[in-house]
Specification:
With about 280 residues, the chain is of the alpha+beta class. The chain folds into 2 domains: about 110 residues, Sandwich (Immunoglobulin-like); about 160 residues, C8orf32 fold (Roll), CATH 3.10.620. The protein has 6 helices and 16 strands. The chain has a 5-stranded antiparallel sheet, with no helix packed on it. About 40% of the residues are buried.
Protein backbone atom coordinates (compact mmCIF):
# COMPACT_ATOMS: atom_id res chain seq x y z
CA UNK A 1 0.00 0.00 0.00
CA UNK A 2 1.17 3.52 -0.79
CA UNK A 3 -0.06 6.81 0.65
CA UNK A 4 0.16 9.54 -1.98
CA UNK A 5 -0.35 13.28 -1.65
CA UNK A 6 -1.34 14.87 -4.96
CA UNK A 7 -1.19 18.58 -5.64
CA UNK A 8 -2.72 19.52 -8.98
CA UNK A 9 -2.62 23.19 -9.93
CA UNK A 10 -4.30 24.30 -13.14
CA UNK A 11 -6.17 27.22 -14.62
CA UNK A 12 -6.25 29.83 -17.36
CA UNK A 13 -4.26 33.00 -17.99
CA UNK A 14 -6.16 35.51 -20.13
CA UNK A 15 -4.77 38.10 -22.51
CA UNK A 16 -6.90 40.75 -20.85
CA UNK A 17 -9.38 41.06 -18.05
CA UNK A 18 -12.26 38.61 -17.80
CA UNK A 19 -15.48 39.96 -16.40
CA UNK A 20 -17.01 36.61 -15.39
CA UNK A 21 -16.37 32.88 -15.77
CA UNK A 22 -18.44 29.77 -15.17
CA UNK A 23 -16.57 26.51 -14.66
CA UNK A 24 -16.60 22.88 -13.57
CA UNK A 25 -13.66 20.79 -12.36
CA UNK A 26 -13.13 17.04 -12.13
CA UNK A 27 -9.93 16.86 -10.11
CA UNK A 28 -10.80 15.08 -6.85
CA UNK A 29 -10.57 11.28 -6.48
CA UNK A 30 -13.26 9.16 -4.84
CA UNK A 31 -12.96 6.18 -2.55
CA UNK A 32 -13.36 3.06 -4.68
CA UNK A 33 -11.87 -0.40 -5.12
CA UNK A 34 -8.17 -0.18 -4.49
CA UNK A 35 -8.06 3.36 -3.13
CA UNK A 36 -9.26 5.25 -0.06
CA UNK A 37 -9.43 9.06 0.04
CA UNK A 38 -8.23 10.41 3.38
CA UNK A 39 -8.69 14.08 2.47
CA UNK A 40 -9.30 16.25 -0.58
CA UNK A 41 -10.11 19.86 -1.36
CA UNK A 42 -10.02 22.47 -4.11
CA UNK A 43 -8.82 26.04 -3.54
CA UNK A 44 -9.93 28.59 -6.14
CA UNK A 45 -8.49 32.01 -6.93
CA UNK A 46 -10.13 34.47 -7.25
CA UNK A 47 -12.23 33.11 -4.37
CA UNK A 48 -15.54 31.63 -5.45
CA UNK A 49 -18.35 29.70 -3.84
CA UNK A 50 -18.36 26.01 -4.74
CA UNK A 51 -21.06 23.45 -5.38
CA UNK A 52 -20.21 19.73 -5.52
CA UNK A 53 -22.04 16.74 -6.93
CA UNK A 54 -21.32 13.30 -8.35
CA UNK A 55 -22.01 12.98 -12.08
CA UNK A 56 -23.70 10.15 -13.98
CA UNK A 57 -20.46 8.13 -14.25
CA UNK A 58 -19.59 8.52 -10.56
CA UNK A 59 -17.03 11.32 -10.87
CA UNK A 60 -16.85 14.10 -8.27
CA UNK A 61 -17.55 17.48 -9.87
CA UNK A 62 -16.91 20.95 -8.43
CA UNK A 63 -18.81 23.80 -10.08
CA UNK A 64 -18.17 27.49 -9.43
CA UNK A 65 -18.53 30.93 -10.94
CA UNK A 66 -16.24 33.94 -10.64
CA UNK A 67 -18.14 37.21 -11.05
CA UNK A 68 -15.32 39.63 -10.23
CA UNK A 69 -12.91 40.86 -12.95
CA UNK A 70 -9.77 38.70 -13.20
CA UNK A 71 -6.87 38.09 -15.57
CA UNK A 72 -6.07 34.60 -14.25
CA UNK A 73 -8.12 31.73 -12.87
CA UNK A 74 -6.27 29.13 -10.82
CA UNK A 75 -7.37 25.98 -9.01
CA UNK A 76 -5.29 23.86 -6.66
CA UNK A 77 -6.66 20.41 -5.88
CA UNK A 78 -4.93 18.64 -2.98
CA UNK A 79 -5.71 15.02 -2.14
CA UNK A 80 -4.28 12.42 0.21
CA UNK A 81 -5.04 8.90 -0.98
CA UNK A 82 -4.14 5.39 0.15
CA UNK A 83 -3.68 3.14 -2.87
CA UNK A 84 -3.51 -0.64 -2.74
CA UNK A 85 -2.50 -3.18 -5.39
CA UNK A 86 -5.50 -4.22 -7.49
CA UNK A 87 -6.57 -7.80 -7.91
CA UNK A 88 -7.21 -8.81 -11.51
CA UNK A 89 -9.38 -11.90 -11.22
CA UNK A 90 -9.92 -14.12 -14.22
CA UNK A 91 -13.47 -14.36 -15.55
CA UNK A 92 -13.42 -17.00 -18.29
CA UNK A 93 -16.22 -16.48 -20.78
CA UNK A 94 -16.96 -16.95 -24.46
CA UNK A 95 -17.76 -14.23 -26.98
CA UNK A 96 -21.39 -15.36 -26.93
CA UNK A 97 -21.54 -15.09 -23.14
CA UNK A 98 -20.01 -11.61 -23.29
CA UNK A 99 -22.59 -10.48 -25.82
CA UNK A 100 -25.44 -11.81 -23.69
CA UNK A 101 -24.12 -10.21 -20.51
CA UNK A 102 -23.39 -6.89 -22.18
CA UNK A 103 -26.90 -6.58 -23.59
CA UNK A 104 -28.43 -6.84 -20.10
CA UNK A 105 -26.72 -3.82 -18.53
CA UNK A 106 -26.89 -0.13 -19.39
CA UNK A 107 -23.44 0.29 -17.85
CA UNK A 108 -21.90 -1.95 -20.51
CA UNK A 109 -24.20 -1.17 -23.44
CA UNK A 110 -23.39 2.54 -23.29
CA UNK A 111 -19.65 1.77 -23.37
CA UNK A 112 -19.96 -0.06 -26.69
CA UNK A 113 -21.00 2.92 -28.81
CA UNK A 114 -18.15 4.79 -30.49
CA UNK A 115 -17.73 8.52 -29.98
CA UNK A 116 -16.15 11.08 -32.27
CA UNK A 117 -12.93 10.77 -30.29
CA UNK A 118 -12.79 6.95 -30.21
CA UNK A 119 -14.12 5.96 -33.65
CA UNK A 120 -11.34 3.77 -35.13
CA UNK A 121 -10.06 3.95 -38.70
CA UNK A 122 -10.50 0.86 -40.87
CA UNK A 123 -6.97 -0.50 -40.42
CA UNK A 124 -7.19 -0.26 -36.62
CA UNK A 125 -10.55 -2.05 -36.61
CA UNK A 126 -9.08 -4.76 -38.85
CA UNK A 127 -6.13 -5.21 -36.48
CA UNK A 128 -8.48 -5.56 -33.52
CA UNK A 129 -10.61 -8.07 -35.44
CA UNK A 130 -7.58 -10.21 -36.35
CA UNK A 131 -6.54 -10.37 -32.70
CA UNK A 132 -10.10 -11.09 -31.52
CA UNK A 133 -10.54 -13.90 -34.06
CA UNK A 134 -7.38 -15.59 -32.73
CA UNK A 135 -8.81 -15.88 -29.20
CA UNK A 136 -11.67 -17.93 -27.78
CA UNK A 137 -11.73 -15.62 -24.75
CA UNK A 138 -12.62 -11.92 -25.15
CA UNK A 139 -10.62 -11.24 -21.97
CA UNK A 140 -7.42 -12.56 -23.56
CA UNK A 141 -8.21 -10.72 -26.78
CA UNK A 142 -8.74 -7.42 -24.95
CA UNK A 143 -5.37 -7.62 -23.23
CA UNK A 144 -3.53 -8.38 -26.47
CA UNK A 145 -5.33 -5.56 -28.28
CA UNK A 146 -4.35 -2.89 -25.75
CA UNK A 147 -0.79 -4.21 -25.44
CA UNK A 148 -0.40 -4.20 -29.21
CA UNK A 149 -1.59 -0.61 -29.40
CA UNK A 150 0.70 0.41 -26.54
CA UNK A 151 3.70 -1.03 -28.40
CA UNK A 152 2.81 0.51 -31.76
CA UNK A 153 2.06 4.08 -30.59
CA UNK A 154 5.02 6.13 -29.34
CA UNK A 155 4.44 8.41 -26.39
CA UNK A 156 5.32 11.93 -27.54
CA UNK A 157 4.17 15.28 -26.20
CA UNK A 158 3.35 18.24 -28.41
CA UNK A 159 2.15 16.38 -31.52
CA UNK A 160 -1.51 16.16 -30.47
CA UNK A 161 -4.05 18.23 -28.54
CA UNK A 162 -7.18 17.71 -26.47
CA UNK A 163 -9.31 17.63 -29.64
CA UNK A 164 -7.21 14.95 -31.38
CA UNK A 165 -9.18 11.84 -32.32
CA UNK A 166 -8.11 8.21 -32.14
CA UNK A 167 -7.99 8.11 -35.95
CA UNK A 168 -5.60 11.07 -36.11
CA UNK A 169 -3.30 9.75 -33.37
CA UNK A 170 -3.27 6.25 -34.89
CA UNK A 171 -2.28 7.68 -38.28
CA UNK A 172 0.69 9.42 -36.62
CA UNK A 173 1.47 6.45 -34.34
CA UNK A 174 2.32 9.14 -31.80
CA UNK A 175 0.52 10.85 -28.95
CA UNK A 176 0.09 11.11 -25.20
CA UNK A 177 -1.82 8.90 -22.76
CA UNK A 178 -5.15 10.48 -23.74
CA UNK A 179 -4.60 9.54 -27.39
CA UNK A 180 -3.38 6.01 -26.68
CA UNK A 181 -6.39 5.43 -24.43
CA UNK A 182 -8.82 6.66 -27.10
CA UNK A 183 -7.19 4.34 -29.65
CA UNK A 184 -7.49 1.38 -27.27
CA UNK A 185 -11.13 2.17 -26.47
CA UNK A 186 -12.08 2.43 -30.14
CA UNK A 187 -10.36 -0.85 -30.97
CA UNK A 188 -12.02 -2.74 -28.11
CA UNK A 189 -15.48 -1.39 -28.88
CA UNK A 190 -15.09 -2.31 -32.55
CA UNK A 191 -14.97 -6.02 -31.63
CA UNK A 192 -17.84 -5.86 -29.13
CA UNK A 193 -15.88 -5.41 -25.90
CA UNK A 194 -17.27 -2.61 -23.66
CA UNK A 195 -14.50 -0.12 -22.84
CA UNK A 196 -14.36 3.17 -20.96
CA UNK A 197 -11.96 6.06 -20.44
CA UNK A 198 -10.37 6.55 -17.01
CA UNK A 199 -8.67 9.73 -15.84
CA UNK A 200 -6.43 10.07 -12.82
CA UNK A 201 -2.83 10.32 -11.74
CA UNK A 202 0.23 8.10 -11.96
CA UNK A 203 3.22 8.22 -9.64
CA UNK A 204 5.89 8.26 -12.39
CA UNK A 205 8.73 6.80 -10.33
CA UNK A 206 8.07 3.20 -9.22
CA UNK A 207 10.73 3.27 -6.50
CA UNK A 208 10.02 6.76 -5.12
CA UNK A 209 11.29 7.19 -1.58
CA UNK A 210 8.97 8.10 1.28
CA UNK A 211 8.84 11.89 1.46
CA UNK A 212 10.00 12.30 -2.14
CA UNK A 213 8.02 14.67 -4.36
CA UNK A 214 7.84 13.80 -8.06
CA UNK A 215 6.68 16.09 -10.85
CA UNK A 216 3.86 14.28 -12.62
CA UNK A 217 0.84 14.98 -14.76
CA UNK A 218 -2.75 13.93 -15.23
CA UNK A 219 -2.92 10.43 -16.62
CA UNK A 220 -5.39 8.28 -18.56
CA UNK A 221 -5.91 4.56 -19.02
CA UNK A 222 -8.59 2.12 -20.18
CA UNK A 223 -11.00 -0.27 -18.50
CA UNK A 224 -12.82 -3.04 -20.35
CA UNK A 225 -15.52 -5.46 -19.31
CA UNK A 226 -15.37 -9.20 -19.85
CA UNK A 227 -17.26 -10.47 -16.81
CA UNK A 228 -16.08 -7.57 -14.65
CA UNK A 229 -14.26 -4.30 -15.28
CA UNK A 230 -10.50 -4.55 -15.62
CA UNK A 231 -8.07 -1.66 -15.97
CA UNK A 232 -4.84 -1.48 -17.93
CA UNK A 233 -2.36 1.30 -18.69
CA UNK A 234 -1.47 0.93 -22.40
CA UNK A 235 0.82 3.96 -22.37
CA UNK A 236 3.19 2.27 -19.92
CA UNK A 237 2.21 -1.34 -20.70
CA UNK A 238 1.47 -2.07 -17.04
CA UNK A 239 -1.43 -3.29 -14.94
CA UNK A 240 -3.28 -0.74 -12.82
CA UNK A 241 -1.64 -0.86 -9.41
CA UNK A 242 -0.69 1.10 -6.33
CA UNK A 243 0.79 3.98 -8.35
CA UNK A 244 -2.50 4.80 -10.11
CA UNK A 245 -5.06 7.13 -8.49
CA UNK A 246 -8.45 7.13 -10.21
CA UNK A 247 -10.41 10.39 -10.54
CA UNK A 248 -13.11 9.81 -13.15
CA UNK A 249 -14.61 7.51 -15.75
CA UNK A 250 -16.53 8.20 -18.94
CA UNK A 251 -17.03 7.41 -22.60
CA UNK A 252 -13.99 9.47 -23.59
CA UNK A 253 -11.96 12.48 -22.45
CA UNK A 254 -14.87 14.89 -22.88
CA UNK A 255 -16.67 13.22 -19.95
CA UNK A 256 -13.75 13.67 -17.53
CA UNK A 257 -11.90 16.85 -18.56
CA UNK A 258 -10.18 18.22 -15.41
CA UNK A 259 -11.32 21.80 -16.03
CA UNK A 260 -13.75 23.35 -18.47
CA UNK A 261 -15.84 26.47 -18.59
CA UNK A 262 -16.95 29.60 -20.40
CA UNK A 263 -16.03 33.22 -19.79
CA UNK A 264 -16.87 36.75 -20.87
CA UNK A 265 -13.84 38.73 -21.91
CA UNK A 266 -10.72 38.35 -24.12
CA UNK A 267 -10.82 35.87 -26.97
CA UNK A 268 -7.53 34.19 -26.06
CA UNK A 269 -6.52 32.19 -23.00
CA UNK A 270 -3.64 29.90 -22.02
CA UNK A 271 -4.07 26.74 -19.96
CA UNK A 272 -1.41 25.95 -17.36
CA UNK A 273 -0.97 22.69 -15.45
CA UNK A 274 1.39 21.47 -12.75
CA UNK A 275 1.06 18.17 -10.89
CA UNK A 276 3.21 17.10 -7.95
CA UNK A 277 2.92 13.72 -6.22
CA UNK A 278 4.54 12.97 -2.89
CA UNK A 279 4.83 9.47 -1.49
CA UNK A 280 4.06 9.70 2.23
CA UNK A 281 4.18 6.01 3.09
Amino acid sequence: MKRLRIRHRTGFSYEGQVNASYNEARMLPSTTDGQFVLSSQIDIHPPASQHSYVDYFGTRVTTFEVLTPHSELSLTATSLVEVRPRQHSEHPMSWEQLQQQTSRSIETVEQLAQTGRSDPPEDLAELAREIADAHDSPCDAALEIVETIGRQVTYMQGVTGVQTTAADAWARKQGVCQDITHIAIGALRSVGIPARYVSGYLLPKPNAEIGETITGESHAWVEWNCGSWRGYDPTNLIEIGDRHVLVGRGRDYSDVAPLRGVYAGPFSSRLFVKVEITRES
